[in-house]
Specification:
The chain has five helices and ten strands, in the order E-E-E-H-E-H-E-H-E-E-H-E-H-E-E. By secondary structure, it is an alpha+beta fold. The protein folds into two domains: 37-168, Glutaredoxin (3-Layer(aba) Sandwich), CATH 3.40.30.10; 187-229, Antioxidant, Horf6, Chain A, domain 2 (2-Layer Sandwich).
Length: 231
Amino acid sequence: MSNHVESATEEPARTLAGIAPAAASLPRLGMAAPAFEAVTTHGKLRLEDFRGNWLVLFSHPADFTPVCTTEFLAFAAIAPELRERGVELLGLSIDSPTSHIAWVLNIKEKFGIDIPFPIIADSNKEVASLYGMIMPGESKTETSRCVFMIDPVGTVRAMIYYPLTTGRNTDEIVRLIDALQTTDKHGVATPANWKAGDKVIVPPPSTMEEVEARLKAGFECTDWYFCKKAV
């Protein structure tokens, strides 16, 4: 079971305004990620501290639980790949800092794996409320398995929600980061099941002039609106 004993010196996560949100909300794609300041296993951190890098913010239901342990092992495994892409990881649950630290040490002892990223101790559920991480239909206290991709300027670019019973596919998280970064770099879209190195979708033309130009551009076209190219 998770250790929910809080230390006397613990400072709970808080919003920058210092005011807890009245009700849970969901961030919106394309909008600014909600600002926060929180106690973590790496000290106090703010969302602003990650500006200039991509951030994968993810929540888990509780420390010292088997599915969450498999997820943390998987996140630790992809951390070097993400770092090569300019991406930082930041975990979160409502457990205390001491619980997080004890769990990280336990993972090192039992599995031989270091957890390289910080974990927010959101005992007051303030960050969880800002990001809509608690789903009352599943649990009124534990955070669901949420993932938020936040770009270098602080915009929410993608969100994934998993139920408490289902561990996440971290390969999909790497794939999604690759897709978002490819879109930003080349101004293209990515098709279903796309992986880095695959051809991408050229945005469809909106004028006849663009249609004619496309047909001369040498793209791989199935029809005027459906064209791919290598990047």
